[in-house]
TrEMBL record:
Binds 1 pyridoxal phosphate per subunit. This is Acetylornithine aminotransferase. The gene is argD. Belongs to the class-III pyridoxal-phosphate-dependent aminotransferase family. ArgD subfamily. Homodimer. PANTHER family: AMINOTRANSFERASE CLASS III, SUCCINYLORNITHINE TRANSAMINASE.
């Protein structure tokens, strides 16, 4: 008989950069999760927009077990069949012509930023090096990406930061126009800010970003790590915005829970990443790519994407009904199944209280800052699970009044 693994072991053996809840999940199926005690949870969190097809989806389980019995890893001295098939599927479904595989969103963003700088140096010289990003943005935890991300709480305290990074207000067209110059090499942005509070870009802002990039020979990088792979109801969020980026990064739900990231770009810019300029030991490994293939096959189906919008409407309706009862939200933000409920003044800064209470009532949710409760469930979460999850959220909020 094995000894039960206790939450207290975390404090003994793990670096304390996380503060996990007391429960330890041990099993998941679809949009339901069970902890060590057998308590059941409805999952409205999806591992932070990762588990796009829920837990242990049959197609993903088949993909990983089939590939696990064939080939796990080679190295990028050679290529492999799953990587090539996945790259073809991603280019077929997007604006891109070329793909670079990594292991995470941060690594995909690191590759995107390096490519943008490389293009600028090759074509215009070293002085064209400024990267414009936006306050409250989030692009990963490497030193380069956390510096480009617009949240000082994540980037301060590690010494001198990489230079030539400017942060502007998101959706401020006038500030963007005033600052942009021929020294700008790239703009990096989320088409819908996730960690910063589920903030959508305005049509005027998106249009201005694309036009200024074209005018000043700068590259537009869309960080679709959280918005991509069906999350907003189109395969990539840019499809609903009327513009196309030069570089796009994707991760999180690309592997449905298996670590993988990718940078997508065009034939015009890809050649600047010559042999030896960048790489990844595990990037593009057969195991991850086989799982991601299965994810793309399911998510790209029209009925899956249509279902995202239908589920969004149901969750919005349920949140509005909860608000009518308890007067808790000032605004519902987001698109598809990347939604944020902004707390009103009476509930200000109590997002984590709601997260904890929801957990006590058998519901997994997220926060985006101290004032937004975030919902990123499976794209195919059953309707009955949505109704049950909303009922548990109702009880959780009632318990806090």
């Amino acid at each position: 008989m094995t000894n039960k693994v206790e939450r207290s072991l975390f404090d003994d053996v793990m670096v304390p950069c996380y503060n996990p809840m007391s429960v330890i999940p041990v099993e998941g199926k679809g949009s339901r999760v069970w902890d060590q005690e057998g308590k059941e949870y409805v999952d409205f969190a999806g591992g932070i927009a990762v588990s796009c097809l829920g837990h242990c989806h049959e197609d993903l389980v088949n993909a990983v077990t089939t590939q696990a019995n064939k080939l796990w890893h080679l190295s990028n001295v050679m290529t492999n069949e799953p990587a090539l098939r996945l790259a073809k599927k991603l280019t077929d479904i997007s604006f891109a012509d070329k793909v670079f595989f990594a292991n995470s969103g941060a690594e995909a963003n690191e590759a995107a930023l390096k490519l943008a700088r490389r293009v600028a140096v090759d074509k215009f010289g070293a002085d064209k090096s400024e990267i414009i990003a936006f306050k409250k943005g989030f692009h990963g935890r490497t030193f380069f990406t956390v510096t480009v991300g617009g949240q000082e709480a994540y980037s301060d305290g590690f010494g001198p930061k990489p230079g030539q990074v400017t942060h502007l207000e998101y959706n401020d067209v006038d500030a963007l126009k005033a600052h942009f110059s021929d020294k700008t090499c790239a703009v990096m942005m989320e088409p819908l800010q996730g960690e910063g509070g589920i903030i959508s870009s305005s049509p005027e802002f998106i249009k201005a970003v694309r036009e200024l990039c074209d005018e000043h020979n700068a590259l537009l990088i869309f960080d679709e790590v959280q918005t991509g792979n069906g999350r907003t109801g189109t395969f990539y969020a840019y499809e609903g915005l009327g513009i196309t980026p030069d570089i796009l990064t994707t991760a999180k739900s690309l592997g449905g829970g298996f670590p993988i990231g990718a940078m997508l770009t065009t034939d015009e810019f890809a050649p600047h990443m010559k042999v030896g300029t960048h790489g990844s030991t595990y990037g593009g490994n057969p195991l991850a790519c086989a799982v991601a293939e299965a994810v793309v096959d399911v998510v790209a189906q029209p009925e899956t994407l249509k279902g995202v919008k239908e589920r969004e409407a149901l969750i919005r309706e349920g949140l509005q009904q909860i608000d009518e009862k308890y007067d808790v939200f000032s605004e519902l933000r987001g698109q598809g199944l990347l939604l944020g409920a902004v707390l009103n003044d009476q509930w200000k800064d109590r997002a984590r209280d709601i997260l904890v209470a929801a957990g006590q009532h058998g519901l997994m949710v997220l926060v985006a800052g101290t004032n937004v409760v975030r919902f990123t469930p499976s794209l195919i979460i059953p309707i009955e699970d949505i109704k049950e999850g909303l009922a548990r959220l109702d009880k959780a909020i009632a318990s806090l009044r």
